[in-house]
Structure formats: structure tokens, C-alpha cells
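Protocol step 4 of 5: obtain the predicted structure for the target chain.
Materials: sequence only (see below). No template structures provided, no constraints applied. The aim of this step is simply to have a reference model before the mutagenesis design in step 5. Sequence pasted as it appears in the construct record:
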Amino acid sequence: MALKISRNPRAVQQIPGEPYTEACIDISISFGQAPLVRCRWLLCALLLGVVQAVYADAASDSHSRDLAVSDHPRQAIRQADSELKIAFSAGDNATQLKALRLRALAYSQVEEIALLKADTEAGLVLARELNNAEAQCEFMGFKAAVAMNESRYADAIALYDEAIAFAETNNLPVSRARLLAGKADVYLSLDRGAEALKMLQDAYGEFEKHNETLWMVSALSAMAGANKGDPKDPKTQQLAIDYYQRALAMISPATNRYDVGTLYHNLGVAYATRKDYAQARSYFEKGVAIVHALDDPVAEAYLHYRLAQLDGKEQHHAKALVNLERALPVFVEKQNTNLLLLVQLERARAFASLDRRKDSLDALVKAKTYM
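Step 4 output (C-alpha cells):
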């Protein structure tokens, strides 16, 4: 699960048509005779219509990708796998690129970083070969996101800056906004919330202008993370909740299940921070119900870990162990050392509270191996 929705650079938006309009005007003026001008204008109008249709299709593809991954990223991966096989057999590079963009977007959502890295390399080659500036922006953003997930923060910032400059050169304002939101996530990881917030506000304005609802949701969720007041201050806690609630109101559990599940997680954490454990539990349990149907065991395991934390705080230690045992095998399979450390520490606390000292010590020994 993408615990901060903003982590995931999504697909790229329609290229504006203004430069093409200006090109047509220049061609028309270069002819001196009125009849030729009229013919030229007619030809340009027809060409402009074709261009607009192409970019409308591109925007439609982009929104379709966003919706598919917002709802069921694992299913989107399977769809892309099938499309890639057919396109590769047919030697259809354009369809291969389209499928790679869908699969990379889905990999970024479920944080399959090694697979995302491979698709990014292949996608950049194809995008450059086909001279697709939108796709280039997208894969340049994925490359930066991979660097961030590998804790190469300086590299990530440099890669985002390069991609943002490319988007600006190619007059791609929404692509630039998406990349800016990705860069903001790096700054959040570096605890530079004030700078991240400015970037997110800039990006949000562009998303709002272009009616990019899912990206507005992503930016709002990230703004909650950029809200760097005192976490113990009720006003700070409420501001984060307000951001998440605004984001949640923009999407539907019927068509955006994965993103809704992520927001349920984030709201659960926010309510747990203000010690409203009943509300926190409600959101975590709703999150489990959603992601269980989405074939994402990691997201489900993480929510069980969160429920175990609540169980511990409410002195339900046996129940905490049940939730931790549901999470543990998934994290072992994925070899996620950070989460394995957290789960073993939580197990040690639960065992100690139940006076199971040997089990508690065993859990601490296991935890030490992940430090």
C-alpha cells in the first residue's frame, strides 16, 4: 500500500494545443494570395482537428490508467501483462508503451520498486524512440521515485528537476505538476515540510485547473503529511484529518477502492494520534475490508499491524497477537526489514504484557536481527 498517496508519480496529461494553433497561423500568413490563405486555413483547421483528437485520446488513456490503478492496481498489472504480450508479438511499439505506462503506474502504487525500475528503463527507451514527451516525463518521474525509494534523495531531487525542466520545455503543465508533487514527497522524506507544502500547493492549483481529481486527492493527502506543526497539538491533528476528509470526499469506494483504502489507513493513523481509538479502529477495519478484495496482501498486512497497535494501547494483547500473526508471514515473504522489526517489537510488548517472558525475549532477539 502506498501509505502516502503522493509517493506515486501517476500517468501524464494531455499536451495543450496552443503551439499547434500558432504554427497554423504562421503557415497561413506566409501565403500572399487570399484564396491560398483560405485553403491553407482550411487545411490547418483540419490538421488542428486531428491533433486535438489525438490529444483527446491521449488524455482519455491517461485518465483510464489513473482510474484503473486507483481502483485495483493488481488487476491493472494483469491487464498490462496481457497487452504487452500481444503488442510484443505484433511488433507494436505504441501499444507496448501504453501497456508499460499502465504497469509502471500500478507498480508504483503497490510499491513494487524492483519491477518499477525495470519497466522505467524499458519505457524510457520506447518513449524516446516514439518521441512521446508525455511518456518521457512520466518515466523520468518514475526513475526519480525509484531513487527516492532507494534512499538516494539527492539523486531523486536532481532527477525530478531534470524531468520538470523537460516538462516545461515541452509545455506540459500538468506533467510538471505531477513531477512537482513527486519532488515534494522527497522533501517530506527529508523532513522539509514547509518547502514540500509550497510545491504541493503549486501542483494542486494546476490539477484543479485541469480537473485532475485523482491528482487533487493525491496532493491533499500529501499536504496532510507536510503539515509540520506539533503532532501533539489538537489543531495540527485536526488539520491533517481535514485534508484527508477533503480527499476522501472526492472519490468513491465503488470505483477508487485502493485510494480509498489508503485514505482509510491515513485517517486511522491520524485519529490514533489524537487517541480517538474508536474512530481509528473503524477506519482501519474499513481499510481491511476494502483491500482484502484487491489482492494486495501487503496492504492488508499493514492494516493488521495498525490494528495490533491499537489493541496494545487498549490492553487487548491476545487480540494484538492475532493481528500480528496475520501480518508477519506477508512481511517475511516480502523481506521488508523495517516492518519485520516493527512487528517483532510489537509482539515482544504483547507477550510481555501477557507474562509470556520467553516468547517476549524470542521476539526481541528476532527484532535485533532487523536492526
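Step 4 remarks: The first helix runs from residue 18 to 29. Confidence is low (pLDDT under 50) at residues 1-56.
Proceed to step 5.
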